[in-house]
TrEMBL record:
<dbReference type="Pfam" id="PF05721">
    <property type="entry name" value="PhyH"/>
</dbReference>
<protein>
    <recommendedName>
        <fullName>Phytanoyl-CoA dioxygenase</fullName>
    </recommendedName>
</protein>
<keyword id="KW-0479">Metal-binding</keyword>
<dbReference type="GO" id="GO:0048244">
    <property type="term" value="F:phytanoyl-CoA dioxygenase activity"/>
</dbReference>
<dbReference type="GO" id="GO:0046872">
    <property type="term" value="F:metal ion binding"/>
</dbReference>
<keyword id="KW-0408">Iron</keyword>
<dbReference type="InterPro" id="IPR008775">
    <property type="entry name" value="Phytyl_CoA_dOase-like"/>
</dbReference>
Amino acid sequence: MGITGSLTPDQLELFHSQGYLVIESFASEDEIRDLRKRMNELLNQFDCSVSSIFSTKNQQHTTDNYFFESAQKISFFFEEKAFGDDGELKQPKELSINKVGHALHELDPVYKEFTYSSKVSSLVSSLGYRRPVVMQSMYIFKQPGIGGEVVPHQDNSFVYTDPPSCTGLWMALEDSTTVNGCLWAIPGSHKNGLVRRFVRGENGVTYDRPSPSYDQRDFVPIEMKAGSMIAFHGDLIHQSFENLSQKSRHAYSLHVVESDGCKWAKDNWMQREKMPEPLYVLP
């Protein structure tokens, strides 16, 4: 049976013009509950002594073997502000984690079932993929009071193929608002192409050029209800601010690339022994 795209012509036009598209009620209440419940189980099993800190501001300094090995594992990354001066967590571990990644969609049956569902495949098919591969998955917490800022960036910087083919899929598991750190984007910025890459070399990882400066007045907030999905072009400039509120902002995020005619870059931070199983393969 072939894969039928789920997006309408008007939705596709909007995606191509502004670089992103919000699809409301993408996930059911039951699916949201199951994803969140499973993450609670994973957190309960998690050994705090084996982990790392995640930061988009200082990633070059916090990247270590734990980070590199997470490409093929389920790994846990703390918020920068989770620890006190004494090096101990300031709150319970479940309120201290920044994200869990990057192979949830391959190694955990609950996340795999959702990722490889017909609704995800249909969405990706609408965007023109023939042999799409989910290269990484992340459960993002945006913790109350300490949820870290994600600086302006493009996903193609980190998940690069030749030619570029990344699409981000970001699903709200809780309402995402300007109060608790929703996504912000510059509409149409994907039309300007990729501005820099995050590359891996003999001495670790680094950006191949400085970040451009952005006018914050160009960004628009993307508030979303729980269960809504946003698809965004790999060259779209987007960011999120710190969560200074008392409400978390959980989300499940996937990064899809094309494996038909596109080559995975050998200097991406993420390197694997083999590519993941494709979502589907068109004849």
